[in-house]
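Two proteins follow. First one:
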Amino acid sequence: MIESKLSISRIEKVLRTVIKTAYTGYVSFSSRPPDVDGGLEDFMVVQVNGSVNGIIATDEVVSGNAVVMFELWAKDKGTCKVKNVDRLIGMRDLLMSIIPYNDGDYKITYKNEVGGRDRLGFHGEFINFNLTII
């Protein structure tokens, strides 16, 4: 069915393909890894951030959109928990080297980003992208 392009699972499959072309680390498509103390130095969480909106005419998707978020996490350095800016910059540069993206069905473009940290010794950058279904 044509409207299957609106499926979150199908979108996540495309996102998995896109990110695995550049990033070889741990990638989750639902939530943070359950055990970040298990030796991970960095990881990504990728998700559709909210709903997928689509306009369907007859049996064809005319257009659609969603926001997808890539959370980039890097383990802090040292006992003082200093943000590992070099690793985060490298992860962001890798991500931005493959986006904007367009495979004829989905187009991904930059939207905005914020940063944060957790209580487990990681800092993160959370980058939102506009996903257009074409």
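Second one, unrelated to the first:
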Amino acid sequence: MYDGSPESHRSSVQFADALDGLAVVIAAALLAVTLADRQSLPRVLLTLAFTCFVPGRAVVANWPQLAEWSAAIMSVVISISVLCLLALITLWAHYWHPLGLFQAEAAASLVAIGVSAARRHDVLGSVRRRGQRRAAVRALGL
């Protein structure tokens, strides 16, 4: 639990990075297996892991208030809810294509996890500050 100390912050960032890394590995491995069109036990296990974790992790990683309850458990709840909702929408729209739906969900999840990791490590802020420094240097004529 985060108590405001630097050590606690560092450990919570490391835990979030580990969860993000696990989600990326699961999504990337499952994408590779499905694109290779392999029918095997690892594909079934990766599908189960993806369904129960990855989309929810993408949501929880970008919504820190949810992570206060339990980052791993909320990821499971939200994953199953989001995937069921998207499956229902595609069924109602008469566009049931499970493999295409999965690939879209995996790509969106990977992008969302990347954005949250960049935000957590302030990558976007450092790029913005670097651009501001360059503009200031140009404005001064140096």
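SUMMARY FIELD: The two ends are 47 Å apart (CA to CA). The chain has a mean pLDDT of 84.
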